[in-house]
Design brief:
Layout (H helix, E strand, L loop, with lengths): L1 E10 L4 H18 L3 E8 L5 E8 L2 H12 L2 H13 E12 L11 E6 L4 H11 L5 E5 L18 E6 L8 E7 L8
Antiparallel strand pairs: 1-3, 1-4, 2-3, 2-8, 4-6, 5-7, 5-8, 6-7
Helix pairs in contact: 1-3
């Protein structure tokens, strides 16, 4: 299991494709160069001004070192102003533990489901029985955010899963997502 960031950016109207083009051209390779695993990148199909993506790290110490390397490195320095100009908010981030998720090549619509179960242990047991093999379940990572320059949401115990566009057998809040481009699965 990896440390996974679920990042949901609210963008200025009409800026999503500009950010996606910049992200795909510069930030995927730039992050991979410092050891960050960049997973699924998505257009929120219900909000044209939202970009959703995942990145993963083996553990929290590795995360801190990799983020420091990227955000003090040449790729971010050169392109940060252009990226930040597209964003209204980049702080909607959940720090999770799980397998990560990259949609398989040719995948259509993907659901990202976020829930806050009252009984986490009971929910986990239920989810283990009912989520299909194409789903990737993640749980809140409660470790302290040791890279405070990038805030994460705290004080909540969330379960997040990604998978095919089929409704799970319980009420949820889902994001309908379209993959930006296929990339290798997070490991």
């Amino acid at each position: 299991m990896s440390i996974v960031e679920l990042r949901q950016y609210t963008l200025h109207p009409g800026a999503r494709e500009t950010l996606i083009e910049l992200f795909e051209r510069e930030f995927v390779i730039g992050q991979q160069a410092v050891g960050i695993t960049v997973g699924g990148r998505f257009r929120d199909l219900d909000d044209p001004d939202r970009f959703v993506w995942l990145r993963a790290f083996p553990d929290m110490a590795y995360r801190r070192r990799a983020l420091e390397a990227f955000y003090t490195g040449p790729v971010w320095r050169e392109h940060r102003d252009a990226a930040n100009a597209t964003m209204v908010d980049s702080d909607n981030v959940l720090l999770l533990r799980g397998p990560g998720f990259t949609p398989p090549p040719g995948a259509g619509e993907v659901f990202a489901t976020v829930c806050h179960p009252a009984g986490a242990a009971a929910f986990d047991a239920y989810a283990a029985r009912h989520l299909g093999p194409g789903h990737a379940l993640h749980r809140t990572e409660h470790a302290e955010n040791d890279f405070p320059r990038l805030p994460v949401r705290t004080g909540e115990d969330a379960r997040v899963w990604f998978g095919p566009a089929e409704p799970p057998p319980w009420p949820t809040r889902r994001l309908r997502l379209e993959p930006v481009t296929p990339w290798p699965r997070l490991s």
